[in-house]
Amino acid sequence: MTRALVALVVMLWSVAAMRDGLERYVDATELPVMVHATSPEVRDRNGHLLRAYHIEDGLWRMALSADQVDPLFYKMLVAYEDKRFYQHKGVDPQATLRAAWQAVRHGRIVSGASTLTMQVARLLEDGTTGQWQGKLRQVRLALALERRLSKAQILDLYLQLAPYGGNVEGLRAASLVWLGKEPGRLTPAEAALLVALPQAPESRRPDRNAAAARMARDRVLDRMAQARVIGTEDARAGQTDPAPLGRHAMPQIAPHMADRAIARGPGRHDLTLDRALQTAIEDLTRTYMAGRDPRLSMAVVVAGIESGEILASVGSPLYTAAVGQGFVDMTRAQRSPGSTLKPLVYGLAFDRGLAHPETLILDTPVQFGTYAPQNFDGIFRGELPVRRALQLSLNIPVIRLTEALGPAHLMTALRRAGVNPGLQGGAPGLALSLGGVGVTLEEMVQLYGALARGGQGKALIWEKGDAPAPLGPVMTRASAWQVGHILAGLAPPPQAGPPGRVAYKTGTSYGHRDAWALGWNGRYVAGVWLGRPDGTPVPGAFGGDLAAPMLFEVLGRADPRVTPLPPPPPETLLVGRAGLPGNLQRFGPREAAPDLQLTFPPQGAQLAAGSVIPVKLRGGTPPYTLLADGAVVASNLRGAEFTAPVSGLGYTVLSVIDARGQSGRVLIELR
Q: 0.90 exceeded by the pTM?
């Protein structure tokens, strides 16, 4: 009895010693690196993936949290791979004994005993299971992992590191590549496929062996029905679902903006973009440019007026296009804005008390030193309201206002709006208001956002968490409203709906290099640019013809309800010309009592067609300019008598304008 007791004590002591030794052995285990690089991601304002980037060796490995995974996948994974996962401590004794017994009975390995924790151990060390040393190491590491990590953390490691074929690693990358969707909501068939692939990731790759992938998926579905994880009918229905036959491309939405975000640093970036709107505008841009010269590019920016957040930004129709330099983000390229700066000039003139929308202004030949501006169509319209001059986008009236304001004042206003104008040469000149400066589309949308916001500047932001740079007022809210009201009176492009819902302005730069359209409704401000990135002229390209229809399409996508423009502020002066103060009824030289008189031919004269028509003047300041029906037919005339080279039949208006802007005109009939 004493010997038996001694033997029992020795045995218990030996077991305890072995247990303690094992405990010390496991505790001394040095864990491998537990944190692994994941693909940099760019997401939209709601957390939806816009674009992801490879990590080293072109590998896709995506960050994933438990709440991003369909619970059905967890149930199926544990039931199929390790049904006692939540009970064992890293090694499943029952599975081990069963595997050993089956191997002895059949003379070969029939089933494995590897737990999910042991698989994680192998993945962490990129180890093998073919040799007993490797298996023992996995057992030791699995026991150590169970002591230092929770079950949820172990599952997280599995979902991040499990191989899914080729350069795809981890559940989220696999779901995006093989299913084309996030793993948050999976069908039984989809979940089963994602459970099956890591067991033989290369031989079951859907793009190389779709049949093997489908067979493995169907086996998982059968097992899940037997384990009552899913119903039999669900399993049968899942087996009839088509299996993927190839890879889905990773999302590449807003590629230019994504590149811009990643340039700030790796990791995750959440932008202010709205994925649905961004995708719609990208599709619209590609459709709009289809069939056009492939060397052309287009850029679009949409932002919220009040928030200043960019909701959509398209740098080119096709990011990968080589011919059209699609890789160039044309929302940030400096280009000449053409006539799109004119609304700013008029708003500043209203602010300074130089003009009112009903003020009369001269559209007549004028010269400032050596600079003699011309209208785009070469026609002069005489005296007309400022409102109409802006709507017609005439050059001479806006140059007169720019000269009165001073180009430096215009540059200051641009900078207050957050625009960083690029000038070639020295000080800005009068041509500044006609587009003689470099600006970006993003800056112009920011400027028009100030007009839409009642004259208050606000920097656009494109990454969540960024604070907009503080900007001051560009003009008073009454002046900004007046500009918007004038621009809302422009006729929309064909099929764009009734006028008055969008305030917009188009522009075409010198040489037809850039076509622009910028505008806003009651909620959004947007801009469209079209041209060649290399700056080559595009004959026939006009902002009104090419960019304006696109602008209305863009605003329609952003705001299908068409939020109306705001009413005028209470301080807005809403009167006709007769109700204006005397100094605001006309701008610049008056035509009421001109010194210049056209004495011959007399009013209503009937003259023979084809004959030489003499013209005689009295008064005025040379040089003179002679016009027929608004078109210049002779200029730099010094004498008081000359002839008019007019031909054709019918009525003709002859006009003479002197150096001070005074004019005389007569109506004659050629018979």
A: no
